[in-house]
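Listing 4. Sequential folding, example run.
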Amino acid sequence: MWDNRFEEILRQHLPFLPADQKLQEDITLMDFGLDSLGIVQLLGALEDTYGVRFRDDALTSETFQNPAVLWKTLGRISENAG
């Protein structure tokens, strides 16, 4: 599963996710309010927090489909950066 920083950042970009609702790994992020501007802001926050850069091949709608895919992509990018 993901770390607390990831969940905190992701929740900030999901305005329709109630604060008391558990963040499930398979929720559709768009259903909880993540839009194109939110993706750009989320991307910047993740890059700053984890010290990585998302390459063009990771900037797909599939990457931002749900928390599990996004976390897996972030992990892969972090491994390649290190």
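-- end of first protein; second protein begins --
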Amino acid sequence: MEACDRPSASTFKFHIFYNSGQNGAWRNIGYSVYDFDALRPGGSIPNVYKLHFCSEGASNPWPGSGQRVKNNAASGENEHYKYWARVYFNSGYKGPQDVMAPYQHIAQFRNVYNENASFKWTSS
């Protein structure tokens, strides 16, 4: 599954991490996410699910493996060459945010540390 490939091998260009310093479990994100707890694949309303960190380390799980992304992420990295990555405090791209320019890594979120609910790509 693309969302759980190693970040360096994923074609999805935003990576969100459970721990500071791009450590612990991760989730690769390729598209804007209005609410980390209400994903609707293909726009379907009956099939709503919560975004979770990927499970890594079968016998010794990495910190955050399988946990919800919403209000649990501490750092991120933007590997897109053109677009800015924005992680928001609230769902719907609202409230305080941490912004990452193209090719920028944030060792620890400042404004949305463990309080994050949505993600959006922007042109600046």
